[in-house]
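Action item from last week, closing it out:
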Amino acid sequence: MRRPLALLAATLLTGALAVPASAAGGDDGFAIKDPRITESSGLAASRLHPGVYWTHNDSDDGPYLYAVDGATGETVARLTLTGVGTPRDVEAISIGPGNKIYVGDIGDNLGGTWPHVWIYELPEPERLADATVRATQYVVKYADGARDAESMVVHPKTGRVYIIDKNEEGGHLYEGPEQLSPKGDNVFRPVAPVELWATDAALSPDGRDLAVRGYLGGIHYAWNGGKLQRKGRLSVPLQGQGESVTYSADGSRLLFGSEGTESPVESREAPGAGNGDGGGGKGARAGDGKNTAGEDGGDTVKVGGAVAAAVVVALLFGLGRRRRRR
């Protein structure tokens, strides 16, 4: 059922902010066509199946993952996970070494009060077809207490899992154990600050770069062994509720997704993939030639017309999500 905040946001959005899907397919962007996918909240480029992207709904859907063909936007497989409990607030998805899929049931609709959250791990199927797949469930706790999070990455070389919590004043990168254990608690510890209200993040395929996005902008970090060295702002498209980001399988593009029916996935050149500045720093320009709107305290954001509407919509969605019931 559509909530009042969502209705208000949709009204503001109409006519003020139209985000067309890319005409091209695959790594150049697409629109998700499956009517079952209305709250795409995470995105991960397949390593086994070039041009295919894994996604999932936010909540109230069930233990499902969807493989979407980037050339057509059509779902080519839906996986039903077994071996896990009832998902609460699935917010992130990432591909690790050995083509393992990691799913982050790490959101907290109660504002950071759940004593634990979960991560699910499963093998990426070699054949794309609807299937039931058994997953391993890991219990996750934070060393400094419960919190809300929407961003999870798996290092492509080491397989170590990291989470970024969601905080209006900026969060932290949390490092998990060297190996997750299905028995007992897996405690994640803060290792580096993140200067963004993060809604998703992605590690480059070589593990050297971290892209973190929020509702209104993004930041590019050099991974630096998890110590994070800020490189600059990301060229993030203006979206009604920007919830996801992934690198393309070859690392040359960043793809940004949004919630909603037939939601667009938009593509931008990845930092250092031809722009010469090593990371879309100050003055970077979006793929449509417009200046990037940063979510970056020191940068001046010039807002007018459609951009103002996008800001209002994103904030409304963000507030709505914090008040949402299970």
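Closing note: The chain has a mean pLDDT of 82.
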